[in-house]
Design brief:
Strand content: 5-15%
Number of helices: 6
Number of strands: 5
CATH architecture of the largest domain: 3-Layer(aba) Sandwich
Number of domains: 3
Distance between the termini: 64 Å
CATH topology of the largest domain: Rossmann fold
Structural class: mainly alpha
Oligomer: single chain
Helix content: 40-55%
Radius of gyration: 24 Å
Length: 152
C-alpha cells in the first residue's frame, strides 16, 4: 500500500529547486523576519519549513474555495511560470494573469475602474471629433480634452 504524502512538496525538493534563496539582505521588509532562516553573504535564506507550512495552509484554503465553486485567480508573471499558469488555470477553468501585473489591481480596484470609465469617455469624444468638421472641434472642445485625446 502506497503512503499518501502529507505535503505536496518535500523540503528537499524545495531546496533542490532553489526556493530558499531570498532577496538581498539590504532590501528586505521586516515583516519577513519569521520566514528568514538566516543570511549567507548578502542574500537572505528563506526558512523552507515555513514555506512547506504555508503551502499546506494554501492547499487547504484553495480546496475549500474550489469546493464552494469559488473563483481562484492564478498569477505568475515570471517567464518560467507563464506556460504553467496558463495551462493549469485553463485546465480548471479559472482566470489567470501571466503577463505584466498592474500594481494595485486588487487593492485599488475602485480607482482603476473609474479611470477605465474615463478612458472610455475620452475614446468616445475622440471618435466624435474624428467625424466632426475641424472648425467645430477647434472652438467647441476644451483644450485640455483635445490634448488628452491626442495623447491616447
Amino acid at each position: 500500500m502506497s503512503r499518501v504524502p502529507t505535503s505536496p512538496v518535500s523540503v528537499q525538493e524545495l531546496i533542490d529547486a532553489g526556493v530558499h534563496f531570498g532577496h538581498r539582505a539590504s532590501m528586505w521588509n521586516p515583516k519577513m523576519r519569521p520566514y528568514v532562516y538566516g543570511r549567507r553573504k548578502l542574500i537572505h535564506i528563506i526558512d523552507v519549513r515555513e514555506t512547506v507550512r504555508g503551502i499546506l495552509r494554501a492547499k487547504k484554503y484553495l480546496r475549500q474555495v474550489a469546493s464552494q465553486d469559488g473563483l481562484i485567480l492564478f498569477v505568475g508573471t515570471k517567464r518560467q511560470a507563464t506556460e504553467t499558469i496558463k495551462l493549469e488555470a485553463g485546465r480548471c477553468g479559472m482566470p489567470y494573469v501571466a503577463e505584466r501585473w498592474l500594481g494595485g489591481t486588487l487593492t485599488n480596484f475602485k480607482t482603476i475602474r473609474s479611470r477605465l470609465g474615463r478612458l472610455k469617455e475620452l475614446e468616445i469624444v475622440r471618435t466624435v471629433m474624428y467625424y466632426l468638421p475641424e472648425k467645430y472641434c477647434q472652438y467647441h472642445t476644451p483644450i485640455g480634452i483635445q490634448n488628452k485625446i491626442l495623447s491616447i
